[in-house]
Amino acid sequence: MIAKDKQQELKMTLHEIITEALHDPQNWDRVDGVAKVNWNFVDSDLWLHPESKKFSDKEKMDALDTYPENLVPSLDNGGLFVHPFTDMDGVTTAWVSLKNPRVTHPLP
């Protein structure tokens, strides 16, 4: 019998896979202290996700193209937050990070 968590994972939609990838800190770049989505990494996570095999390439491309912008983590929707960051030289700046980070593909 498959565990309940495994059963839920096997029923993921393209929207859920993209949402999961958007909450992976590895799929974000930090430019001048501001977090920005690296859509190439999100795209890669989508194509490599085991559940994506049941969808066509066109369906995956359409899912990325039509993913609602308001669901991408941002300061406005509470998915990102500002916090102080002090570098090794003791300089403190404001950084933006994911509020609920999750690693989608941890290293073995």
Helix and strand arrangement:
Elements: H1 4-9, H2 14-22, E1 28-31, E2 34-37, H3 39-48, H4 57-65, E3 80-86, E4 92-98
Antiparallel strand pairs: 1-2, 3-4
Structure, described:
The structure is a single chain. The protein is of the alpha+beta class and 108 residues long. It is built from 4 helices and 4 strands. It has helices at 4-9, 14-22, 39-48, 57-65; strands at residues 28-31, 34-37, 80-86, 92-98. Strands 1-2 form a two-stranded antiparallel ribbon. Strand 3 (80-86) and strand 4 form a beta hairpin. Helix 2 (14-22) packs across helix 3. The protein is elongated.
Number of strands: 4
Anisotropy-based shape: elongated
Give, in order, the helices and strands. Answer: HHEEHHEE
Question: Helix count, per DSSP?
Answer: 4
Quote the average pLDDT. Answer: 81
**Low-pLDDT segments, ≥5 res:** none
Estimate percent helicity. Answer: 25-40%
Strand proportion: 15-25%
Radius of gyration, in angstroms, nearest whole number: 16 Å
Assign the structural class, choosing from mainly alpha, mainly beta, alpha/beta, alpha+beta, or little secondary structure: alpha+beta
Q: Give the CA-CA distance, first to last residue.
A: 25 Å
Side by side, the strands of the main sheet go 1-2
**Main sheet record:** 2 strands, antiparallel
Would you kindly provide a brief summary of this structure?
By secondary structure, this protein is α+β, with helices and mostly antiparallel strands. Helix content is 31%, strand content 20%. The longest helix is centred in the middle third of the chain and has 10 residues.
